[in-house]
Specification:
This protein has helices spanning about 1-15, 150-160, 170-175, 225-230, 230-240, 250-255, 275-285, 295-300, 315-340, 340-345, 375-390, 390-405; strands spanning about 40-45, 50-55, 70-75, 85, 95-105, 110-115, 120-130, 130-140, 140-145, 165-170, 185-190, 195, 205, 215-220, 245, 260-265, 270-275. It has about 425 residues and is of the alpha/beta class. It is elongated. It starts with a helix and ends in a 19-residue tail after the last helix.
Length: about 425
């Protein structure tokens, strides 16, 4: 009986949640009326300046239909029963309007339309003249701003692997590609260090005024100006008339590292002085689409799996040798694992192990005040390899000592920093 009661209660809840016992109130929908001449309506906006409701409409292709007729922009007066009238002109390119936005200006309304062309999506801009919309321009060319030339090359390579046409700004400008608003226009890649708002002479710097027609700006780690404001100001000028998407794995550090104050323009009254941290927090909190910072993608198995050895040892050549030997053993162990079955690892895109030595100096500097001879980090590493290759017996003993815990790499409590690191 108890089970039956529970079953009845559960069934009743399902029916209630499904709305079986609800009664829809009359909202006066009998006043609705169909507007003729509009097929495939997508979006609508009320224009006080025109006095009509503006509607974007796109024809839906029939099953098996290859050529799709272009859509159009329509308008109708909601206070009249007159049919809608077409307000957009015939255009020399495919026009498949979806989302629209109206901007009422003193010179008249301006209409922004998302156009899903077969080859790419664009933004079409229309002005209002003589009771019709007139096409003014197309925003199509995407612009990618990078921190340096190395990342520019990397992005272009990745674009090409994905079948996306991309080129450096210098090459595109020389070939006249920047003037193209067609679907074949490439992604333009430019380093932010070359942007300027005060172009002088014929050097490599590029004026931000050259990018006013871009509709999409992609920014890779473009926040370095968060402290000095210069890069942020240039990035803002480039994307003034565009949709700007920025990638960064360190938005939190950007905000926390901001210092000082800045002035924020107010709609009414004088500028307001706020802290840069508060300004950046307000800006990024309202704009971040997807938060996938380092701790998140590290937990998902991406990024660097690092280990920091805080050894309680003097900064001597002997200590450096022990540290470099530990690195060499780790690299050797990974190389053996890779060589054992590289085909099995290839499915996970794991490449051959790479040992990178990151130094602090190239020209050399004294390791201590008493030291007369200065060594750069490069010389230190080269010296280690020379000693390692020249004294096999000595280094075989050191390897056994490293694996057995008899070495200089201990923490402040005397614990072995290499314990359990090698299998």
């Amino acid at each position: 009986a108890l089970a039956l009661a529970a079953l009845v209660a559960h069934g009743g809840k399902l029916l209630f949640d499904a709305g079986v016992f609800w009664r829809a109130p009359n909202r006066g929908f009998e006043a609705c009326a169909e507007r003729a001449r509009i097929t495939g309506a997508e979006d609508m906006e009320w224009s006080p300046g025109i006095g009509q409701i503006i509607v974007s409409a796109d024809f839906r292709p029939a099953a098996g239909e290859v050529v799709t007729p272009s859509g159009a922009i329509y308008g109708f007066d909601p206070s009249s029963k007159a049919p809608a009238s077409r307000l957009s002109p015939e255009l020399p390119f495919p026009f498949h309007p979806h989302g629209i936005a109206l901007w009422e200006t003193a010179a008249g309304p301006r209409l922004f339309v998302i156009n899903h062309r077969p080859e790419m999506s664009t933004i079409e801009i229309f002005s209002w003249s003589e009771q019709r919309f007139r096409h003014e321009e197309t925003l199509a060319d995407p612009l990618l701003i990078t921190p340096n030339e190395s990342l520019s090359r990397q992005h272009i390579d990745e674009f090409r692997k994905s079948g996306i046409l991309a080129t450096r700004y210098e090459d595109a400008n020389a070939g006249g590609l920047l003037a193209s608003a067609s679907g074949t226009a490439p992604v333009i890649v430019l380093e932010i260090t070359k942007l300027t708002d005060k172009k002088r002479g014929s050097g490599q710097s590029v004026s931000v005024a050259e990018f006013e027609a871009f509709g999409l700006v992609l920014v890779d780690e473009g926040h370095r100006g968060a402290s000095g404001d210069e890069w942020r100001k240039l990035r803002g000028a480039v994307g003034k008339n565009a949709l700007t998407l920025e990638y960064s794995a360190t938005f939190g550090q950007i905000v926390n590292g901001a210092t000082g104050n800045t002035k924020v323009p107010q709609l009414y009254g004088p500028d307001k002085t706020v802290s840069k941290k508060a300004m950046l927090l307000s800006e990024y909190a309202a704009a971040i689409l997807f938060d996938f910072s380092y701790p998140h993608f590290y937990t998902d198995g991406y990024g660097k799996d690092y280990a920091i050895l805080n050894a309680d040892a003097d900064d001597t050549n002997d200590t450096s040798d022990w540290i470099l030997l530990a690195n060499l053993l780790s690299y050797y162990e990974q190389s053996i694992a890779y060589a054992a079955d590289p085909n099995a690892l290839r499915a996970y895109n794991i490449e051959r192990p790479l040992w990178i030595l990151v130094g602090n100096s190239v020209t050399g500097g004294k390791a201590s005040r008493e030291e007369e001879v200065t060594l750069s980090d490069v010389q230190t590493v080269v010296g280690f390899f020379a000693r390692f290759l020249a004294g096999r017996a000595t280094w075989e003993q050191r390897i056994q000592a490293a694996l057995g815990g008899d070495h200089a790499l201990k923490d402040g409590n005397g614990r072995d920093l290499l314990a359990h690191r090698f299998s």
